[in-house]
Structure formats: structure tokens, C-alpha cells
């Protein structure tokens, strides 16, 4: 997951930066039927929103699924409670940033639609919130990465303990065949 997340995070950050730059080009041209950059910005923004929401959803799903797996392994092998407590902390720490990023992207898109259809003061609000969204997503990707790395180490420890217990109970031949 670590390698995949890095690719997804770099793609998401690149799209956010490119969309931010295209937004400045769109804002600098006059409104009307010939405003090409406005159309490009709207379409590129839709792509960016989908990708960013997808990346954060994948991370959320990863934490939910691995926490459930960890709870089941700890229950079956009667492993220490601190493993599950740490896995839960990893998920909760990342969850705040995942939901915050998704909300920020949604609010930015909403203000962008308002700026495009209603004009006026919505453009300044859209720019301000887009700047905050860009910065928050960068921080969020860092926090999520650190959480994924920590979670991966924890899951490896959990798996190693379960493998050792299975080997003690059933012997090395059976444990090798039934490895998690």
C-alpha cells in the first residue's frame, strides 16, 4: 500500500497544483462564449475532485479493512490489546485528515460553481478556500503516509506474532502451509 499511496498522493498533488494554476488563467480572461480557460478549469476541476476523493476513499477503506483484519487476528490468537488500540489510533488519526480533505475539496468545488454561475464575491472566496484546500491536502497526504507506514509496521508485527503462535501450536510444517 505504501508504494501505491505515494503514486496516488503525487498524482493528487500534481492535479491540485495544475488546477490551481489553470484557475488563475481562467480568472484572468473575460467572461463570454470565447472563454476557453474557464471551460478547461471546470473540466480539470471535475477530474481533480474525482481523483482526490478517490485517493482519500482508498486510504479510508485501507484503514477500515486492515483494522477489522487486525481485530479478528488478535481475537483468534488472543494477542495483546495494545495492538488493536494502536491500530485504532492509526485509523482515527488519519480519519480526521481524510474527512477534512474531502470536505475541503467539496466546499472548494461548491464555491467554484457559485463563482462561475453567480460571479461577484464568490470568486475571492473560491480562491481563498482553494488555497486552504491545497495546503490542507498536502498536509493530509503527509499525515496519511505516516499513518500508513506506522500501520504497516503494526500489521507486520501482528502477523509475525500470529505466525509464531501458529508454529508453536501446530508445528512448522502446518504453519508454513497455512500462513496468513
TrEMBL record:
**Which superkingdom does the taxonomy of this entry point to?**
Bacteria
Indicate the transmembrane segments per the record: 42-63, 94-113, 125-149
The protein's UniProt keywords, in alphabetical order, are: Membrane, Transmembrane, Transmembrane helix
Q: What is this protein called?
A: DUF4405 domain-containing protein
State the species of origin.
Answer: Paludisphaera borealis
Upper lineage: Bacteria, Pseudomonadati, Planctomycetota, Planctomycetia, Isosphaerales
Amino acid at each position: 500500500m505504501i508504494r501505491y499511496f505515494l503514486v496516488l498522493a503525487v498524482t493528487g498533488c500534481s492535479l491540485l497544483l495544475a488546477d490551481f494554476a489553470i484557475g488563475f488563467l481562467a480568472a484572468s480572461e473575460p467572461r463570454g462564449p470565447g472563454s476557453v480557460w474557464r471551460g478547461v478549469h471546470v473540466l480539470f476541476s471535475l477530474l481533480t475532485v474525482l481523483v482526490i476523493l478517490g485517493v482519500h476513499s482508498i486510504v479510508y477503506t485501507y484503514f477500515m479493512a486492515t483494522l477489522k483484519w487486525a481485530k479478528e487476528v488478535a481475537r483468534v490468537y488472543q494477542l495483546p490489546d495494545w495492538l488493536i488500540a494502536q491500530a485504532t489510533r492509526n485509523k482515527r488519526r488519519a480519519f480526521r485528515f481524510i474527512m477534512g480533505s474531502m470536505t475541503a475539496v467539496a466546499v472548494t468545488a461548491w464555491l467554484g460553481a457559485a463563482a462561475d454561475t453567480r460571479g461577484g464575491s464568490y470568486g475571492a472566496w473560491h480562491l481563498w478556500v482553494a488555497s486552504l484546500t491545497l495546503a490542507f491536502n498536502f498536509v493530509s497526504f503527509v499525515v496519511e503516509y505516516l499513518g500508513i507506514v506506522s500501520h504497516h509496521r503494526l500489521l507486520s508485527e501482528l502477523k509475525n506474532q500470529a505466525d509464531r503462535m501458529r508454529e508453536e501450536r501446530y508445528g512448522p510444517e502446518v504453519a508454513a502451509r497455512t500462513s496468513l
